[in-house]
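FAQ

Q: What does a record look like?
A: Structure on top, sequence underneath. For example:
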């Protein structure tokens, strides 16, 4: 039995469907929205609808955009010969925050995960191969997460790209800045030693 009116219960249910939001957090969000002035609540609802209606995939890199192509692909200042392959649009934002990378991106929108019934045809690998086949790309940087699915995806994509004559690299892994060696796990230490470079 619910203690709340049906419209409020429905709002709570909607918030509870969001990733990382439990039932209590969903209730707090719903009550917060109810306390908003009508204009702010309408602006919030309109922002959701506008984003849903206007945000789409870039025709080139599959990143999110509100036009035909995203700002990164449209920029003449970016190096189009280097493409960094990431799993999600959030990863593009993370790499851009470093201000060290000046190439283009390709967003897969997921990783290969047989346990979750996600295969190579369920992510944007065909679009990447099509881009490489058009020419002009000399290096692909695989920047998927260093977990089982990310590694499997990177290996699968690199095997498809090697015959196309493009250089395929992987992000280096190692000891995080500011941490201690004694706390690093064996796999991290192995990667750090494997990826060492001359000073």
């Amino acid at each position: 039995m619910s203690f709340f009116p049906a419209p409020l219960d429905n709002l709570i249910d909607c918030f509870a469907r969001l990733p990382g939001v439990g039932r209590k957090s969903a209730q707090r969000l719903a009550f917060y929205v109810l306390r908003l002035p009508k204009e702010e609540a309408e602006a919030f609802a309109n922002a959701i609808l506008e984003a849903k209606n206007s945000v789409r995939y870039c025709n080139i890199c599959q990143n999110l955009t509100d036009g035909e192509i995203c700002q990164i692909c449209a920029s003449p200042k970016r190096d189009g010969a280097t493409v960094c392959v990431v799993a999600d649009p959030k990863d593009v934002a993370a790499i851009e925050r470093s201000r060290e990378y000046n190439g283009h991106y390709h967003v897969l929108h997921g990783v290969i995960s047989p346990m979750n019934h996600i295969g190579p045809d369920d992510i944007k690998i065909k679009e990447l191969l099509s881009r490489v086949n058009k020419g002009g790309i000399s290096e692909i940087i695989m920047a998927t997460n260093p977990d089982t699915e990310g590694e499997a995806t990177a290996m699968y994509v690199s095997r498809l790209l090697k015959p196309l004559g493009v250089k395929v690299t992987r992000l280096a892994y190692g000891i995080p800045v500011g941490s201690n060696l004694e706390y690093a796990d064996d796999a991290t230490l192995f990667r750090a030693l494997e990826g060492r470079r001359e000073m």
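Q: Is there anything notable about this one?
A: The domain at 6-54 is CATH 1.10.8.420 (Helicase, Ruva Protein; domain 3).
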